[in-house]
Structure formats: C-alpha cells, structure tokens
Specification:
105 residues, 0% strand, 4 helices
C-alpha cells in the first residue's frame, strides 16, 4: 500500500495541473508558485483553443484538406479558386475609385 501512495499523488498532481484545479496547499514548499500557476493556465487555455480549433476543422467537411493546406502555407488563396471576379463594383472593395485609373482617391 505504501508503494502506491507516491504514484497516486503524482497522478492527482498531474490532473490538478492539467485542469488548473489547485487547492491552497498544492504548491506548499515550492518557491514562486505563481509562475507555475501562470504556466498551467497558459497551457490549459492553449489546450482548450486547440480542442476548439479541431472541432471547427471537423465542421468544414470536404473543405478541411484545402483549409489546412492554406493555413500551413502550402497553398495560396487566389481569386480563381474562390470564384471572385475581376469585375467588381467600386463599393465592394471598400474605397472610392477614380474613374481614370481605378486608384483610391
């Protein structure tokens, strides 16, 4: 029974760190616990963001592969792939164009 206590304590500590569930005496005897707490919160939020990102990728369906290629820099976004036309209204681009050379005024 005594041999299992350190293992149980390590598992409990790991779960507390992963879930940022610290009680008052969790960091007892450790210098500067606020740094460890800050790091734990940073990693916790990063994991949550990663989980959300993966959920959003799942929603893309057939477009997932193309999206991953674009965000990884292996594919560039161009007008041809996304159906934008060269012919557009001046109001659609967010500036007023001069009639002669289509430069912003």
């Amino acid at each position: 029974m005594l041999l299992s206590q350190p293992a149980i304590k390590n598992i409990t500590m790991r779960e507390a760190i992963v879930n940022c569930n610290f009680d008052e005496d969790f960091f007892e005897g450790i210098d500067h616990p606020e740094g460890y707490i800050q790091d734990a919160w940073f990693l916790y939020n990063m994991r949550k963001g990663f989980e959300l990102f993966n959920e959003m990728l799942g929603i893309l369906g057939d477009e997932k592969e193309e999206f991953v290629l674009i965000i990884s820099g292996k594919k560039k976004i161009d007008d041809e792939n996304y159906g934008y036309s060269e012919e557009y209204e001046d109001d659609d681009v967010g500036f007023i164009a001069d009639d002669e050379d289509n430069e912003p005024v």
